[in-house]
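Weekly structure sync, notes
Attendees: PL (lead), two postdocs, one rotation student
Agenda item 3: pending single-chain targets
PL asked that the sequence for the first pending target be pasted directly into the notes so everyone works from the same version. It is reproduced below exactly as submitted, 70 residues in total.
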Amino acid sequence: MTKNWSLYIARNEAKQSQGYVAKKLGISPQRYQLKESGKANFTIPEAQILSELYGMTLDELFSNEIKIES
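Predicted structure, written out during the meeting:
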């Protein structure tokens, strides 16, 4: 597994801590860190919460590609 860069960027652009997002998901900050870093997987309900939180589709959030618009 690799780090989820799209999620990392979305979280940082929203100026949210890993602890804040972990609380939204109902998991520990340590567990969230493992998931964001790609060492554990998000559940479907967690992924749906993140999608709504950042206004992104699941494909956008969990794609390994980073798209840069000019």
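Discussion points:
- The chain is about 60% helix and 0% strand.
- The chain has one domain: 5-62.
Action: rotation student to compare against the earlier draft before next sync.
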